[in-house]
Amino acid sequence: MCASGKYSSRGPALIPRMKTKHRIYYITLFSVVLLGLIATGMFQFWPHSIESTADWGLDRRSVHDAPLIRLPVSNPIPERGDLSCRMHTCFDVYRCGYNPKNRIKVYIYPLQRFVDEVGVPISSTGLSREYNNLLSAISDSEFYTDDVTRACLFVPSIDVLNQNSLRIRETAQALAMLPRWDKGMNHLLFNMLPGGPPDYNTALDVPRDRALLAGGGFSTWTYRQGYDVSIPVYSPLSADVELPERQPGPRRYFILSSQTAIHREYRAELERLKEENGEALLLLDKCSNLSQGVASARKRCYKGQVFDYPQILQESSFCVVLRGARLGQATLSDVLQAGCVPVILADSYILPFSEVLDWKRASVVIPEEKLPEMYTILKSIPHRQVEEMQRQARWFWDAYFSSMKAIGMTTLQIINDRIYPYAACTYEQWNNPPLVKWSSVNSPLFLPLIPPRSPGFTAVVLTYDRIESLFRVITEISKVPSLAKLLVVWNNQNKSPPEDSLWPKIAAPLKVVRTKENKLSNRFFPYDEIETEAVLAIDDDIIMLTSDELQFGYEYFNYLYTYKMPGDIKNWVDAHMNCEDIAMNFLVANITGKAPIKVTPRKKFKCPECTAIDGLSLDQTHMVERSECINKFASVFGTMPLKVVEHRADPVLYKDDFPEKLKSFPNIGSL
Length: 671
Known about the structure:
Layout: H1 2-14, H2 20-45, H3 50-53, E1 68-71, H4 87-90, E2 106-108, E3 113-116, H5 129-139, E4 153-155, H6 168-176, E5 188-191, E6 212-215, E7 229-230, H7 237-240, E8 253-257, H8 264-277, E9 281-283, E10 299-302, E11 305-308, E12 316-322, H9 331-337, E13 341-345, E14 364-365, H10 374-379, H11 383-401, H12 404-419, H13 427-431, E15 454-463, H14 467-477, E16 483-490, E17 510-514, E18 532-539, H15 547-552, H16 558-564, H17 569-576, H18 580-592, H19 620-637
Parallel strand pairs: 1-3, 2-4, 5-6, 6-7, 8-9, 8-12, 12-13, 13-14, 15-16, 15-18, 16-17
Antiparallel strand pairs: 10-11
């Protein structure tokens, strides 16, 4: 009104007033054009699929407004669940296709209320707050699509987080009614509380065909490796209680147990440990003398003394996480949030996100039968390592446990990494905190990456007195295109290396380093002359390798071997003149959690100059010591990091009948 009045008062002074019939004509014409544009836009952008019109979101649709779906008794029920399912057998990766962002697209089914023939809902709780938060997080993420035809993964809006609230048969029938179900192919279900009394199965009992299961209590018997995703049991206290991050270090208590519903045999054993170790162990239980109105879930007691929970967890270095009726326990999340190192006693339990998370860095896993030895085991862990584990535990919680959003996004990223492995997150990205104070870190797991000063790799050749063999090795290595420098480590203090004029003439720089002591570990020393990130460590008698085989694969961990090898392993190697290669494999396997990759076929070892006098491996005690050193190294590491692998990486066209000039690595030896 104000605007029209203003312009009408000034109109006569500015422009002549239009005739009424002309004004009506232009207004009518403008209205027709405007309506045409609106209609065109609606037709252009309005979804053309019934399924894609129902964009998920509780802000747009109330649960009570969701359509009611009745389930006839005769409706089909999915199969129980195929334990043999793997990504290559039960998942259609072709649905995902190629996209520049290497990201799967996830579709969430429209919200519906399922009831049986007499109107009883399939769930006693409907849509829980936790599942609502999970679906909202997915719909707000870059994974989400509202176009069902573009979807790679389908998430039902049927809440199966807590099996206790479900009617098993009817829930299965509801899943089978989903338009794109197709025997569960490419469908993802989230469940945190599986099973029920008396058996408490470790996986969701709802028949689900081939659907993937993100489950919170898997055992080794029910977990389908590389298909299912083991997720944590979310703790409601995460949203209700804010625990400020505490600096790693000694705490008031050494061990704390806070669970209230543990088996009587476990509690009896914990009480015995308490008697033996006194104040170092705090054994809490539920409170029976609380005032009316006090929330019992937020309190724990010991002999009448009341403690706030989960705040008390921050007062202990280690916190016990025992199996209950279910393997997965929300206590694990509370413990991680407190920055307390979880001591997990739950045989066969698949730890959350263990496909990508290295739990050795944040927890101690002890067999249930070793509970009586728990105190002794934990006392053997160095203080600095405990501090690093405390820091890692808190970071695990912040990154992967702190909310339903964090749990959901981690689950989808793991599945995404399987489908687009060439763009997958690395071990370091999954396990290294983004900000680490290097000055306070002593573990090789947190070493900063040092950018290389030169491209290519440096070949480090350890030698003693085998000149002819050494020169043959140098000549072959010099043919490798990526060789940046060749470093000869002269390990003989009683004899000088050959004169400069006698050495092979090669294109790459060649430098001889004379050592002060004859040590096998000298081959792994980070010499100043090494300016590349990649290093090839090789002995002077490895003459059977070709330049193509050397070019095809190499790796680098010298700094870790020299300065961060745990215990007295390096001294043991130097004293026995044996097992330096095994020590390096222990180190790399422990850091990466991966098995070695064999990159060339097996050949017979030949060394013309090797004799029983100067060949270490020809000594009768040599192989006996190598067996002993494996046991020695395993005891120092506290575990056996070496992994069994049946894999060999060969170049493309390796055995194909193609002209040699078409092959990138034609000089790869045969078996």
